[in-house]
Structures are given as C-alpha cells and as structure tokens.
Amino acid sequence: MEDRKLTVRAVERALDILMCFTKSSELGLTEIAGLIDLHKSTVHRLMTTLEEKGFVVRDAATEKYRLGLKVWELSTHLSKSDDPAVLFLPGMERLRDRLGETVSLYLRDGKDRLRIQAVQSNQAIRRVAQVGARLPLYVGASSKVLVAFASPEDQQELFLDSEWPEMPDSGAYMRMLEEIRERGYATSFEEREPGAAAVAVPIVNRSGVVAAALSVSGPVGRISTDTLHEFAPVLMEAAHEMGLMI
Amino acid sequence: MEDRKLTVRAVERALDILMCFTKSSELGLTEIAGLIDLHKSTVHRLMTTLEEKGFVVRDAATEKYRLGLKVWELSTHLSKSDDPAVLFLPGMERLRDRLGETVSLYLRDGKDRLRIQAVQSNQAIRRVAQVGARLPLYVGASSKVLVAFASPEDQQELFLDSEWPEMPDSGAYMRMLEEIRERGYATSFEEREPGAAAVAVPIVNRSGVVAAALSVSGPVGRISTDTLHEFAPVLMEAAHEMGLMI
DNA sequence: TCCTAATGTTTCACCACATGAAACATGGTT
DNA sequence: AACCATGTTTCATGTGGTGAAACATTAGGA
Predict the structure, then answer these.
(1) Cβ within 7 Å of nucleic strand D, residues
(2) Per the database record, which ranges form the HTH iclR-type domain (chains A, B) (predicted)?
(3) Cα A213-B78-B14 angle, rounded to 5 deg
(4) Does the pLDDT at position A2 exceed 50?
(5) Which end of chain A is less packed: N or C, by CB atoms within 10 Å?
(6) Which residues of chain B have pLDDT under 50?
(7) The pLDDT value given to residue A60
C-alpha cells in the first residue's frame, strides 16, 4: 500500500466491533471474533477496554455483551438542531395523515442508505418501517432516488466497489436514473420487499444538494402502480417544503 | 503499576475523545488535545480514524468536529426491551399528571448519576430537566437515594476517589443516609440548583436491588418542605409498581 | 502590506505496546 | 470421564502507535 496509514488500527477494530451490535444486540466473544476476523485474545482485550469505558456491558444472565450506557449518553448529545429526523417529523406526519400510508426518510451513508425517521400508517394492514435500519442502495424507490441525484463522482465510487447486482453501466440502468431525474421521483413495486410498493422523492436543500430521500410505501393490495403516480405530486410538494427548512 | 494492563490504550483514548462531545457538541483539534491532555498529532490520527468510520464528522462551515451518524445508528440498536427509560415512561407521565411537577429518572453510572428519562411539568413556571445530563452524586435528593441504597463496597469506592465536598465519614452524613434508608425517601431544598426542591425514592426490582431513583421536583415557590413530605408516599407507591416491572 | 499567532497536517525515528499463538480455565453436553 | 466450546491469561515478537518537530494554512493585528 502506497498511501501512508494515518489511522489507528486498534481503534478501527474497536469501532468495527461496536458496529457489529447493529447486526445483533447480543454477541459473544468468539462470535465477534468471527464477524471481524480477528483472534479471540485480540477481541478480548478490545472488549475489556470497551467494557471498562462503559460502551458495552455484559448481560448478567447470558454472559454476552450488549451496548452500554455510554452509547446512549453520547446519542443524547447529538446536535438535534439541524437533525432532519426531528426537523421533518411534523411534515412526515401530515403526509401520513393525508395519504394514510407509512412515510420514511432516508439518508445515504457510504454504500448504504439509512432509515433515519419513519411514521407508520395506522391502517390495520400496513408496512412497518424500522428506524435505524441500514439498507442496500441498489433496490427500492428511495435507493434509486439517492443514486440518481448523487454526484457523478459518488456514483462512480458506488458502482465501483459495491457488489451491484447487475452491471450499472449496462445502459438500461443509466437510462432509468436519467428518467428519475427528469420526472423527479422514483417508484418500486415489490422490489426489495415482496408485497410492498413505494414512491420516493429527493429532498433538496437551498444549496441545491440532495440531503435525503422521502418515501411513502404500503402493501401492494392497496397500492397499485397508478396509486404510486398519484402519490408522487403530493410527495414532491411536501419534499419541497421540507427542503426549504435546511 | 502492578496489575498488568489488559486494555488497549489507543482505544481508551479514542473513547475518551468521543465522551468529550458530551461537554460540547462542537470541538476543534487542539481543544480536544487540551481536554484529554494529549499531543495534537496523536489526537489528529485518532480523529481521522473516528471520522473515517463515521463516528465524528467535520462541520463544513466551522471545520470543527461533531458526533456522526454512526453514533446515532448505534443508539437505535440499544436493546429497548428492558430499558427503564421506555419501560417507566407511562408511570412517570401518570405521576406528572397527578402531582403536576417534573418527574425524572436517574441511574447511577460510576461516580455520577445520569438522568435517563424526564417528563416535564406543564405548568408555566416549571423545572426543566434535560435527558442525558450527567450530574454529581454528592448533591440532590436523587443522589442521596442512590448513595444510601448502594452496596457498602460501592459506597466505599465512591467516598474514596471522589472529590466529595465534605468528609462523608463525618458521622452526620452517614446518619443522614441511615435515615433515608429507614423512611424510604430523600428530599432536597435548593441543594444542587437554587430555586429548586425535590423528593426522590429508590426503584427496587424483584431481586431487591436498587435499579434507579425516581424524583419529583419543582420551583421552591410552589413546593415547600411540607409539600415534599406529602409527595413522598405517592412517589413510593409509583416506584413500587415500577419495581415490579423489572 | 508584513508579521505574528493559532490552528491543522505531515514526517520521522524510536521503542512501547498491541498482537496472535498457545497454554490455561471453566462450564455445559454426550 | 472425555469432550467441546466458550472465555481468560501469558508471553515473545516486531509492528505500528507515539510525540517532537517541521510544515502548511489561515486569521488577525499593527
């Protein structure tokens, strides 16, 4: 490797360990060692450190590790002022009340997207969206929006080292992205999740940068492709208003 | 030092850096270096690592660091099932409605206490309690409860390396703790915060361990010492119910 | 305008310290 | 008991983290 390392390996590993707890909330030592491919004893030392600092705790019963109080404490000190998750919540609730379906808000984070906020439909049969979920960028309406409106450099990087299902430079995919940019929204029909359909639009801030993707989704029994296209203008109007806030 | 170190220094430092963001939400490099007493370049390498992993981000405008998305993502994966902060919330709201004052929930964490939940009084003049705040263990009604019901070993450790304001083994303090254990609640009158008064009781789980402290607090204009003692039985009943849940 | 100070960044030689193999301990299962 | 799967500790090795110092960049002050 040519570029000199200006990061600290031990810290990288410790942070990787922490992120393992997004996969499972309770992990054993060897389990972690397997996940990040390190020797038991190395993981053990790192875990002792994390435990001593309160970032993980050992469950009294199972002897396994789980995330600790310090993680929670840190999260309370995240700057809330410009946080889209709280800023857009009222608008998302209005949208839910108007369309009657689950509304989600996504951020692009590296090669994934992150559901940072969701308000659930209150109909009996509904799509339940989990806040904090990390999802792939290659399927789903919101993914297509986030990719379509990403900068060309970001797109290149995404296509490069991501295990994209089909060749993105196959022309057809690029044409689809172009179409999304033109009409301003993307749809998906049983694309990531069987039985679910969605429309998504970008939220553009005043600098013209796409800050997030807003989507409405529900069960295919209630939502046809026609419905998706009917929802689109309503979503775009809401997204426009939200974009003015940041 | 006799006991061999079985922790990783670099990771300890990185975690210390993260915890600095509970003091201020925006920090510069030299600022951090000053806080944890390390060389600039060392902090710089650690920050690069934290940034690359998404645990901190640089504010585009100020060039300073703030907590990143990964912290938030982690926090959404904290196991909510047995979390007192969500478990006790309904009970705390009922208590607030009944007494009309701000209700807080505290956990002991090391040599401090942590406000992990709060429901605000809806009166015009009220005490506003910030969730996530780290407070000292040597003043306030909740502190006295947490100390009084701590195990003797924990108490020893607390008195030892904590900068306690007055000698705790001075007899008077110990007698006060004994009294709190006897009657089951503690009060404070403009003790930590001028103009504020509070009552606190322990929440005891079915194993007989004190899991948390529950307090009701408000402005001295509305709350006399008599009021505190009137509140106490109501609080104790609520705390008893909560204790049965865990 | 130049000078100074303060901040962030990179380089580098040293040797502390993180590392992983292996031995050890523990508890559960057959 | 013998086994296996966990977690824990020890220890020699040399990698990789460290901090001093040099460098870069910007802001302000005279």
Answers:
(1) A 5, 7-10, 28-31, 40-41, 44-45, 47, 63-64; B 4, 6, 9-10, 13, 38-42, 45-46
(2) 8-69
(3) 90
(4) no
(5) N
(6) 1-3
(7) 79
Q: Which residues pair with A214 in a beta bridge?
A: A105, A201
First and final CA of chain A: distance in angstroms?
Answer: 40
Q: Give the whole-angstrom CA distance, residue A246 versus residue A236.
A: 16
Fold of the CATH domain B84-243: Beta-Lactamase (3.30.450)
Candidates A42, A66, A77, partner chain B, best to mutate (most B CBs within 10 A): A77
Distance, CA of A60 to C1' of D3, in Å: 27
Q: Which helix (H) or strand (E) holds B143?
A: helix B141-148
pLDDT of A184 > 60? The answer is yes
Q: Where are the domains of chain A?
A: 9-76, 84-243
Instruction: Choose the closest CB to A74 out of B8, B10, B22.
Output: B22
Q: Which two tokens stand for residue A220?
A: 């295919």
What pLDDT is attached to residue B168?
Answer: 60
In sequence order, the 6+-apart residues with CB closer than 8 A to the CB of B67 are: A74, A77, A78, A79, B18, B21, B25, B55, B56, B57
